[in-house]
């Protein structure tokens, strides 16, 4: 039916089918009077060119792939929002796949997305240590620390976030400190910054491990408190885990921040809903998603591009305070 439409436009306009196609794809190559005649006939017939066909001619799909570990995680939702808004302003669409926090599923998702001939894409917090299948034209960007298979990235200076947390505790006079981390390079970098700042102040700290879930935060805090009751500050690698820490402290009758100060990481919407409201290291998730989309689009357009590193920010709320 689409072919019959273009034939009818060409016949009534007195031009060839190729000329009609050029009017909609390369208007500058057609005389203005011919262009006007074709457009008038197309409007009268209600004809609209196929976007799929136009993209095939251009060698573009107008699609950006997006692979995310878990679409329900609030931070990733903010990143997706930034990506989606940038694409919307460019008239492009997004093809999303979730790895469900699994390395094997991530590789499968990547292969499925690439089969749709996306022009480029974004991978958020890869689960795999193995290089992803070579993306088309390498127009892909990784949000998180550097991944060997993707040369361009958007990331947060996680070590700087750890330093911010340590400085805040030191400013408040806290001296019996702990860090609750999680697997992965991001948490390791946060801990590295935290430890370095404390070392310069001549202080050590205790450690516990979670997995970014609320339950693991509760269990990690219980583990720290079982081993020693001397604890006046806890830095937690993620806000959801920090919610679990607050619960553990409450169940033990420990006042926050009176007896124990708590700092989370990410500054997700959850942070301002907890009681007491959680002091957190802000990760500008929406801006990072938007920057990743812009970076991928620059690569698609054949322009030069550089990886982007964002700086964290300390957001003070009621979970920290003087001892």
Would you write up a description of this structure?
The chain has three domains: 2-58, Orthogonal Bundle (434 Repressor (Amino-terminal Domain)), CATH 1.10.260.40; 63-157 and 285-309, Response regulator (Rossmann fold); 158-283, Rossmann fold (3-Layer(aba) Sandwich). It is 45% helix and 17% strand. The protein contains eleven helices and twelve strands. It has helices at residues 2-13, 17-25, 32-45, 51-58, 74-89, 103-115, 158-171, 185-200, 214-227, 239-251, 285-300; strands at residues 63-68, 93-98, 120-124, 140-143, 152-156, 177-181, 205-209, 233-236, 261-266, 279-282, 308-310, 313-315. The strands form two sheets. It has a six-stranded parallel sheet with strand order 2-1-3-4-5-11. β1, α5 and β2 (93-98) form a beta-alpha-beta unit. α1 (2-13) crosses α2 and α7 (158-171) packs parallel to α8.
Secondary structure elements and pairings:
Elements (H helix, E strand, L loop, with lengths): L1 H12 L3 H9 L6 H14 L5 H8 L4 E6 L5 H16 L3 E6 L4 H13 L4 E5 L15 E4 L8 E5 L1 H14 L5 E5 L3 H16 L4 E5 L4 H14 L5 E4 L2 H13 L9 E6 L12 E4 L2 H16 L7 E3 L2 E3 L8
Organism: Deinococcus marmoris
GO molecular function: DNA-binding transcription factor activity; transcription cis-regulatory region binding
Keywords: DNA-binding, Transcription, Transcription regulation
């Amino acid at each position: 039916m689409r072919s019959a439409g273009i034939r009818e436009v060409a016949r009534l306009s007195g031009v060839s089918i190729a000329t009609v196609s050029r009017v909609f794809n390369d208007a500058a190559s057609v005389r203005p009077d011919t262009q006007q005649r074709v457009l008038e006939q197309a409007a009268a017939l209600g004809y609209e060119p196929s976007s799929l066909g136009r993209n095939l001619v251009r060698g573009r799909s107008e699609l950006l792939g997006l692979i995310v570990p878990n679409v329900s995680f609030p931070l990733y939702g903010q990143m997706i929002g930034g990506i989606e808004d940038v694409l919307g302003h460019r008239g492009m669409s997004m093809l999303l796949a979730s790895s469900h926090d699994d390395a094997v599923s991530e590789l499968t998702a990547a292969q499925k997305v690439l089969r749709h001939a996306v022009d480029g894409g974004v991978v958020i917090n890869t689960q795999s240590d193995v290089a992803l299948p070579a993306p088309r034209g390498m127009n892909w960007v990784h949000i998180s620390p550097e991944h060997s298979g993707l040369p361009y990235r958007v990331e947060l200076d996680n070590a700087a976030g750890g330093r911010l947390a340590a400085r805040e505790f030191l400013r408040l006079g806290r001296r019996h400190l702990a860090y609750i981390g999680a697997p992965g390079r991001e948490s390791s970098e946060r801990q590295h910054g935290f430890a370095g700042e404390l070392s310069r102040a001549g202080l050590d700290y205790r450690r516990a491990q979670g997995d970014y879930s609320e339950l693991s935060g509760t269990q990690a805090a219980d583990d720290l408190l079982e081993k020693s009751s001397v604890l006046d500050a806890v830095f937690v690698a993620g806000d959801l885990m920090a919610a679990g820490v607050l619960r553990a402290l409450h169940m033990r009758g420990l006042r926050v921040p009176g007896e124990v100060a708590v700092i989370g990481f990410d500054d997700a919407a959850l942070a301002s809903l907890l009681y007491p409201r959680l002091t957190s290291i802000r990760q500008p998730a929406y801006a990072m998603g938007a920057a990743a989309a812009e970076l991928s689009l620059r690569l698609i357009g054949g322009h030069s591009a550089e990886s982007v590193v964002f700086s964290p920010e300390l957001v003070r709320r009621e979970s920290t305070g003087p001892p």
